[in-house]
Amino acid sequence: MLESVINISEGKDKSLIQRLKSVCSSSLLDVHVDSLHNRSVFTLAGDNLVDDVKSLVKAAVDMIDLSRHKGLHPRFGVADVIPFIVLPGLADTPMEDAILARDEFLKWCTNELRVPAVSYGPERTLPNLRRQLAKENSGLYEETLYSPKTGVIAVGARKALIAYNISVKNLSLEEGREIASDLRSDELRLLAFSYEDKIQISCNLVAPWVLNPSHVYKAVDALAKDMYGKIHRTELVGLLPRSILNDIDQAQWEKLDLGISKTIEYRLSQIKN
């Protein structure tokens, strides 16, 4: 079994997001909407996965104009990032299956949807791809297909990661960026954003079996306190594997915005029932 976590560049228009949800049929597990980033994360898995991902991406391309998009999060496409994900503990699905799904979806994007698509995965990380796309004349997509309205779709193959936000009070953006820089590693990708009177530390836990949300919370909390900052709230973006949740003290779940209902396994069981 594969999962797909589709990042759509729209987080403000509730009516549009509802229409996007309606095309996903039975494979939709979760939608995380973020108006600050102007971005929504759709988590899909199940028997109709590929067909529903295609329906969602086509609808997003039809409805959204990237040239009018404003939000804190970096983006290069209407359907910005589409990873096909191997899930730990749910099935013995090899990475080769995720790569095959990715490559077939890339062909569909280019040949049928007529939107340029580029790949990431074992061969090239998403941060490296973003850096390449930011360069002029990168050659990563065909100029004949590119449109400022749709942008470029990044299609990937990867293992499960956890997207996680930690908001901190009484810090400057410079201090937030210092925390992100200090903690950034191969297992943890971080960005810092300023909003209202707070700083958001946006995290991708690339190896959550090594660094889980509890570890990241403690690390951010310690550095923030050194700067006289205080954690305001935490936010899980999407879902997490149950095996990762089981490694975290249950007494910490509420503080960390975690729980059984936010696991991939629980949401899959709700679909089957």
Instruction: Based on the coordinates given, report the CATH architecture of the largest domain.
Output: 2-Layer Sandwich
Compressed to H and E, one letter per element, the order equals EHEEHEHEHEEHEEHEHH
Helix content: 25-40%
CATH class of the largest domain: Alpha Beta
**Tally of helical segments:** 8
Give the overall shape, derived from the CA principal axes.
globular
Low-confidence stretches: none
Strand order of the largest sheet: 2-3-1-4-6-5
Distance between the termini: 18 Å
What would you report as the Rg, rounded to the nearest angstrom? Answer: 18 Å
Instruction: Give the total of beta strands.
Output: 10
Count of discrete structural domains: 2
CATH level 4 superfamily of the largest domain: Formiminotransferase, N-terminal subdomain
Largest sheet: 6 strands, mixed
Mean pLDDT: 91
Strand content: 25-35%
Structural class: alpha+beta
CATH fold-level name of the largest domain:
Formiminotransferase-cyclodeaminase, Chain B, domain 1
Quick summary:
By secondary structure, this protein is α+β, with helices and mostly antiparallel strands. Helix content is 33%, strand content 26%. The strands form 2 sheets. The chain has a 6-stranded mixed beta sheet with strand order 2-3-1-4-6-5.
Q: Can you offer a commentary on this structure?
A:
- The chain is α+β, with helices and mostly antiparallel strands and 273 residues long.
- The protein folds into 2 domains: 2-159, Formiminotransferase-cyclodeaminase, Chain B, domain 1 (2-Layer Sandwich), CATH 3.30.990; 162-272, 2-Layer Sandwich (Alpha-Beta Plaits), CATH 3.30.70.
- It has 8 helices and 10 strands.
- It has helices at 14-22, 49-63, 95-113, 126-134, 173-183, 213-226, 242-246, 264-272; strands at 2-8, 28-34, 39-45, 79-86, 117-120, 153-159, 162-169, 188-195, 198-205, 230-237.
- Strand 5, helix 4 (126-134) and strand 6 (153-159) form a beta-alpha-beta unit.
- Helix 1 (14-22) packs antiparallel against helix 2 and helix 5 (173-183) packs across helix 6.
- It is globular and about 55 Å long.
- The protein starts with a strand and ends with a helix.
- The mean pLDDT is 91.
